[in-house]
Structure formats: structure tokens, C-alpha cells
Design a protein that fits this description.
This protein is α/β, with parallel strands linked by helices. It has one domain: Dihydropteroate synthase-like (TIM Barrel, Alpha-Beta Barrel). Helices cover 40% and strands 16% of the residues. The strands form 3 sheets. An 8-stranded parallel sheet has the order 9-8-5-4-3-2-1-12, covered by helices on one side. Strands 6-7 form a two-stranded antiparallel sheet. A two-stranded antiparallel ribbon has the order 10-11. The chain starts with 6 loop residues before the first strand and ends with a helix.
């Protein structure tokens, strides 16, 4: 069942998925094209494109991937490379007319990669901003609390909207970096939810979008059904249940995955709330208990 207002950016064109890696290894452009079509047909609003190291070593293959996808799919592409040279190739090849006039997405920009904004000279694009990283005294640092994530988002947004870039706030999607629940001993999941709330409550950030890689949450967790539904899926849906009311409106995820909001009396939602309220080994113990219940 679809969640009203939630936009899925298809994540599957990525070598992190073994089946997709095989497509890249075999330069199987037909299979890549079919995977793009499958995600679009399943309701993706955009497709994230990451072909791994081949983007650096074989730019011609990157161009071929964009060509075959845009030949059959008319939704925007999100180019997932932390490299200006690769993004330049992608943006020069991307044909907005084949995406119903819609802008591509650059994934991602942060304070340590500010030169990415120069790419706007090629063509307009939407951008994913990393709230998890900041620059302090000339050095790049990871944000470990929600206040720093908010301040980083505020600084980036002010600099972009106040600059001569022709960017509107609707073009900005803040990535709040969803971590892995199975190893979260620092309360990072709780921190990301707090950051979503703080960003939502800031009137100067009204209209900004928020996103995250939802599948990261359940990485390395074993499969188990609870009350007839997969526990890993329900944990992801628990995150959405808590995040969506505060403006979290994009997900980097699998479009055919059954995302839905959980009822307040749902056992997994209650367990998720208890896990994210804890730190250290207590959080992991509560997660293990959820699997035993």
C-alpha cells in the first residue's frame, strides 16, 4: 500500500545489489534498462544511478547507461557520485526533455564538496544535501547530534538560496543519513529522527524536502515475520511512521517494497520506539528481544 506524499527514488541501479552488480560486470545494458523500467512501473518518482568505479574508469559506459534508461523511462535520474568530473558527464548527457522537462538530481552535495554547485552552469538540477557532514576550521567532520545536523542544513540552505545559483527551496532534498539499527549504540537513529523534527519546525526551512536511505536501517538483521509481516520491513515502516509527520517525504528505496504506516498499537512500532530511546548495549539487547518476542 502506498503512503500518500512519500516519493520513492529507486535505489536498485547500484552495484551494492548483487544482481545489479552482475549486470554491470557483464555490461548488460538490456537488463539495466529493464530494471529501470521495472522501478518506474512500480511507482518510483526518480531513479538513482550508481555504477560504481566504472563511472570513473569508463565514462563511456556511464553515458550508455543514461542513454538506454532515458530511451525507455521518462522520470528524472539521480546521479549518485561524489565526483565533479563524473557528475559533469552525467549532466551533459541527461536530456530533460526525455524526463517530461524535469530536472535531474545530483546526489550529493555537502560542505566538503561545495564545488559541485559549479555544475549548475551545465543545466539546472535538484540536489541532495548531506546533513551528516560539516566543515569546521577547514576540516570535514561527521555530525553526531541533531543540533549540528540542523545547523549544517541551515548553513547550506542559506548559502545556496542566497547565492547566484537560481535554485529554489523546492530543489533541495536534505539527506539525514539513516544508519544501521543492528549496530547503533550511539543513538544515531534517534538523532536522525530528532533532526527531521528540528528541520521541519524551522520556519526558514519551510518547503525543503527530506530523504534517507531507508534500507540501511535493516542491514544485517535476520529475516523473521511478526504477525504475518517481515520484521525488517516493519522496522523500516516504523521509521516512516515516526518521520513522515515531520516532513520526511522522500525515500531512497525499492519501489515495489510494501511501505505503509504502522498503527500505534503495533508491536514492532512499540519496540522500535523503545530501541531508539536507548543507547549502547541496551539498545542492541532491546532489538534482540524484539526478535525473540
Amino acid at each position: 500500500m502506498a503512503i500518500a506524499g512519500l516519493n520513492i527514488i529507486g535505489e536498485r541501479i547500484n552495484p551494492g545489489f548483487q544482481s545489479t552488480k552482475a549486470m554491470f560486470d557483464n555490461s548488460d545494458l538490456v537488463a539495466i534498462q529493464e530494471l529501470a523500467i521495472k522501478q518506474a512501473d512500480a511507482g518510483a518518482v526518480a531513479l538513482n544511478i550508481n555504477i560504481g568505479t566504472r563511472a570513473l574508469d569508463e565514462p563511456e559506459f556511464m553515458i550508455e547507461v543514461i542513454e538506454v534508461i532515458q530511451a525507455k523511462v521518462d522520470i528524472p535520474l539521480s546521479f549518485d557520485f561524489p565526483n565533479v568530473a563524473v557528475q559533469e558527464i552525467c549532466l551533459k548527457k541527461y536530456d530533460a526533455a526525455k524526463a517530461q522537462g524535469r530536472k535531474p538530481i545530483v546526489n550529493s552535495i555537502c560542505e566538503t564538496r561545495w564545488d559541485m554547485l559549479d555544475l549548475l552552469k551545465i543545466q539546472p538540477f535538484r540536489m541532495i544535501l548531506m546533513a551528516s557532514e560539516r566543515v569546521e576550521d577547514g576540516a570535514g567532520l561527521q555530525n553526531k547530534n541533531s543540533a549540528d545536523m540542523l545547523m549544517t542544513t541551515q548553513r547550506m540552505t542559506k548559502a545556496i538560496l542566497g547565492g547566484d545559483y537560481g535554485v529554489e527551496i523546492d530543489d533541495l532534498i536534505v539527506d539525514i543519513s539513516i544508519g544501521t539499527l543492528s549496530s547503533d549504540t550511539e543513538g544515531l537513529t534517534r538523532m536522525s529522527l530528532e533532526a527531521i523534527r528540528l528541520i521541519h519546525e524551522d520556519p526558514d526551512l519551510a518547503g525543503i524536502h527530506m530523504s534517507g536511505g531507508l534500507s540501511n536501517l535493516s542491514v544485517q538483521l535476520p529475516a523473521k515475520p511478526i504477525d504475518g509481516a517481515p520484521l525488517k520491513l516493519q522496522l523500516e515502516n516504523a521509521y516512516l511512521t515516526r518521520a513522515i509527520p515531520y516532513g520526511f517525504d522522500h525515500v531512497l528505496g525499492t519501489p515495489w517494497r510494501d511501505y505503509y504506516l504502522l498503527d500505534e498499537d503495533n508491536k514492532v512500532l512499540k519496540g522500535f520506539d523503545e530501541i531508539t530511546a536507548l543507547d549502547g548495549l541496551d539498545a542492541l539487547r532491546r532489538l534482540r528481544k524484539l526478535y525473540k518476542d
